[in-house]
């Protein structure tokens, strides 16, 4: 197993599994308390931050795009049109399946391969594969998974660290 594969794919899978658990608990929380699911899906920690739904989309985007670039395959596109907990679960399952399709050998040489991005700004960024994963991809991925967890915790969903961390 190449180093960047082992530092990326298993981590993304573990944390996305945790995110699935947290979302399932959120949906059950909304159902049990007769809360409109949109109240949670559109909840934000602060007005200028993305709502829960978008946090999940962005976290899953980072998992698939970082892994794809490191594996030197085309980054799959998703429509970002989810509106329900079930649709978010389907999205995460799709990303997990994509991650499972990546073979360790595809990551050979990824640590020194140049990765070029335009992350939401007109400025191009250039990284070595190792820097892209460790200094850019993982920090952004963890930010969005943590923020999704925090939104739900803040809104009374009974989740804890074990839920967030997932199975390892």
Feature tags:
Four Helix Bundle (Hemerythrin (Met), subunit A), globular, 168 residues, two-stranded antiparallel sheet, mainly alpha
Task: Give your account of this protein's structure.
The structure is a single chain. The protein has 6 helices and 2 strands, in the order ααααββαα. It is globular. The chain has one domain: Up-down Bundle (Four Helix Bundle (Hemerythrin (Met), subunit A)). It has helices at residues 3-32, 37-41, 52-71, 85-101, 129-154, 161-165; strands at residues 114-117, 125-128.
Question: Can you lay out the helices and strands and say which pair or pack?
Answer:
Layout (H helix, E strand, L loop, with lengths): L2 H30 L4 H5 L10 H20 L13 H17 L12 E4 L7 E4 H26 L6 H5 L3
Antiparallel strand pairs: 1-2
Helix pairs in contact: 1-3, 1-4, 1-5, 3-4, 3-5
- What is the helix tally? 6
- Spatial shape: globular
What is CATH's topology name?
Four Helix Bundle (Hemerythrin (Met), subunit A)
Report the mean per-residue pLDDT as an integer. 95
Using only CA atoms, what is the Rg? 16 Å
Uncertain stretches of 5 or more adjacent residues: none
Number of domains: 1
Biggest sheet strand order reads 1-2
Give the CATH class: Mainly Alpha
Order of helices and strands: HHHHEEHH
Under CATH, the homologous superfamily reads: dinb family like domain
Total strands: the figure is 2
Percent helix: 55-70%
Strand content: under 5%
Structural class: mainly alpha
Q: What is the name of the CATH architecture?
A: Up-down Bundle
Largest sheet: 2 strands, antiparallel
Distance between the termini: 18 Å
């Amino acid at each position: 197993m190449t180093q960047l594969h082992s530092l990326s794919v298993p981590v993304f899978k573990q944390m996305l599994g945790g995110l699935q658990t947290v979302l399932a608990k959120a949906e059950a929380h909304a159902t049990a308390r007769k809360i409109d699911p949109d109240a949670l899906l559109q909840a934000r920690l602060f007005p200028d931050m993305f709502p829960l739904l978008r946090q999940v989309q962005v976290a899953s985007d980072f998992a698939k795009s970082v892994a794809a670039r490191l594996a030197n395959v085309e980054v799959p596109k998703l429509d970002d049109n989810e509106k329900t907990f079930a649709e978010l679960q389907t999205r995460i399952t799709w990303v997990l399946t994509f991650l499972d399709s990546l073979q360790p050998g595809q990551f050979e040489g990824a640590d020194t391969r140049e990765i070029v991005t335009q992350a939401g700004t007109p400025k191009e960024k250039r990284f070595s594969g190792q820097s892209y994963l460790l200094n850019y991809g993982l920090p952004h991925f963890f930010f969005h998974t943590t923020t999704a967890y925090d939104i739900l915790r803040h809104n009374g969903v009974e989740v804890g660290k074990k839920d967030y961390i997932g199975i390892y």
